[in-house]
Amino acid sequence: MNSVQILNDEAYMKLALQMAASALGQTGINPVVGCVLVKEGRIVGMGAHLQRGHGHAEVLALQMAGEDARGSTAYVTLEPCSHYGKTPPCSDRLIEAGVSRVVVATTDPNPLVAGTGIAKLQAKGIEVSVGLLAEEASGMNEAFNKFIVTRMPYVTMKTASTLDGRIASKTGDSKWITSPASRAYVHTLRHRHQGIMIGVDTVIADDPLLSARGDVPAVQPVRIVADSQLRVPLGARVLTEQDRQPTILLASAQAPAERRAALEARGVTVLTCGDGPRVDLLLAMRQLGEREIGSILLEGGGQLNGAMLEQRLIDKLVLMFAPKLIGGGHAAPMNIHFGGFAKMEEAITLDRVKVEQFGPDISISGYPIYPS
């Protein structure tokens, strides 16, 4: 392959990735996928998967291209599916349309696909290249990549604090630690996750709405509250608008039956997560996965965040820091509290660290490597 071909391939794949990224937060447990069809140096079709159960990116691009799809090259950010799900196999559609070459960014980890889509194309004599901009493509679907294999939600923990690690002043004032730019980014994160999770103490203290708010209407996450004894006030804002933004309470079997009945009468879902005094978080994640909640943004308090870390249920951390020093010996510390380790070498470290700036604030994100 000559250098001109490589440059063209990368340019078209970048366009396909841009299309896929535009649908982040819209596809539920499905991946985001973009597809670009090119024939004789001209883009003849484009598509992105926009909603679970609706047309896949390849199908939409083929529909746009029509007869021009024959003899074209397809640039797809994820391996074309080979099985019947809510829609027919995309690999079959590409074969029927007469596409001559397919460039795939990354294979599909779905056990129902896992290379069979590529094999089906190759068996029909179609040239297939795999791996172009694979890291970018895989990163877009990190939640899907975990859920489709484990059936467990991908959990992103987000915190915000001052530079000296405080989440409120010594009087309890916390509005606002970070800038409007940071808060806008957090609402984007909420839109991109299927669920948003906090503990009941945060509900009692702050009465949050737990919605994604921006300049345009967003897909709203399911509200998830860890509430072992069902102490959530019946007038709390997280219990409103169940038809628009459902709420799931994670409770213990020890929770009062009358409280459960009152909450369920409001349309709230209550999941029993263990028999102990506290919610069994691993069981809770499994139950949420069974309900096809594939990604969760954790914005909990220190105890909940710490417990999730201790049980190795966090997949990604987003730590936001405002360039402020608030001081105060009794000011609330950062929202990560757990027993801790005896030695520095045992600490949880972050891999693939990324530093971004939102207004004056700094965001440090990464993926936890848990001690062996």
Task: Describe what you observe in this structure.
The protein has 372 residues and is an alpha/beta fold. It is built from eleven helices and 14 strands. The protein has helices at residues 3-21, 57-65, 90-97, 116-123, 134-140, 142-150, 180-192, 200-206, 257-265, 281-290, 302-310; strands at 34-39, 42-48, 73-76, 101-104, 127-130, 154-162, 195-199, 222-226, 247-251, 269-272, 295-298, 316-322, 349-358, 361-369. The strands form two sheets. Strands 10-9-8-7-11-6-12-14-13 form a nine-stranded mixed beta sheet. The chain has a five-stranded mixed beta sheet with strand order 2-1-3-4-5, sandwiched between helices. Helix 3 packs parallel to helix 4. The chain is globular, with a radius of gyration of 23 Å. The two termini are 44 Å apart. The mean pLDDT is 92.
Question: What keyword list fits this structure?
Answer:
372 residues, 9-stranded mixed β-sheet, 11 helices, globular
List strands and helices in order, with pairings:
Elements: H1 3-21, E1 34-39, E2 42-48, H2 57-65, E3 73-76, H3 90-97, E4 101-104, H4 116-123, E5 127-130, H5 134-140, H6 142-150, E6 154-162, H7 180-192, E7 195-199, H8 200-206, E8 222-226, E9 247-251, H9 257-265, E10 269-272, H10 281-290, E11 295-298, H11 302-310, E12 316-322, E13 349-358, E14 361-369
Parallel strand pairs: 3-4, 4-5, 6-11, 6-12, 7-8, 7-11, 8-9, 9-10
Antiparallel strand pairs: 1-2, 1-3, 12-14, 13-14
Helix pairs in contact: 3-4
